[in-house]
């Protein structure tokens, strides 16, 4: 149960981070670049992104209707 809670908190934290990226994208007008840069900054593997997206979807979190993190 503790591991599930940790994953939920991780997803929520990353979702909040992605919201800040969204604001940056709105400011710069370059959403795809902002998302790509955030993936690089977080240093996530494709497997980690898939896991975050799965739990994010389970929690009903999305980023512009897309998964929590876009795997570009």
Description:
By secondary structure, the protein is an all-alpha fold. The chain has one domain (2-58). It has 3 helices and no strands. The protein has helices at 2-28, 31-42, 46-58. Helix 1 (2-28) packs antiparallel against helix 2 and helix 1 packs across helix 3 (46-58). It is elongated and about 40 Å long. The relative contact order is 0.20. The model has no long low-confidence stretch (mean pLDDT 69). Keywords: Plasmid.
- As residue ranges, the low-confidence spans are none
Q: Average pLDDT, to the nearest integer? A: 69
Spell the H/E element sequence.
HHH
Terminal CA distance reads 32 Å
Number of strands: 0
Main beta sheet: strand number and arrangement?
Answer: none
Helix content: over 70%
How much β-strand is present in the residues? Answer: under 5%
Shape, please? elongated
Secondary structure tally, helices: 3
What is the structural class? mainly alpha
State the domain count. Answer: 1
C-alpha Rg (nearest Å): 12 Å
Keywords: Plasmid
Task: Write a compact overview of the structure shown.
With 72 residues, the protein is mainly α. It contains three helices and no strands.
Question: Topology, please?
Answer:
Layout (H helix, E strand, L loop, with lengths): L1 H27 L2 H12 L3 H13 L14
Using brief descriptors, characterize the structure shown.
72 residues, 0% strand, mainly alpha, 72% helix, elongated
């Amino acid at each position: 149960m503790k591991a599930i809670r940790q994953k939920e908190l991780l997803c929520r934290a990353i979702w909040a981070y992605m919201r800040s990226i969204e604001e940056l994208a709105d400011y710069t007008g370059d959403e795809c670049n902002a998302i790509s840069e955030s993936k690089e900054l977080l240093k996530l593997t494709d497997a980690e992104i898939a896991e975050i997206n799965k739990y994010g979807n389970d929690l009903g979190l999305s980023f512009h209707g897309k998964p929590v993190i876009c795997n570009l």
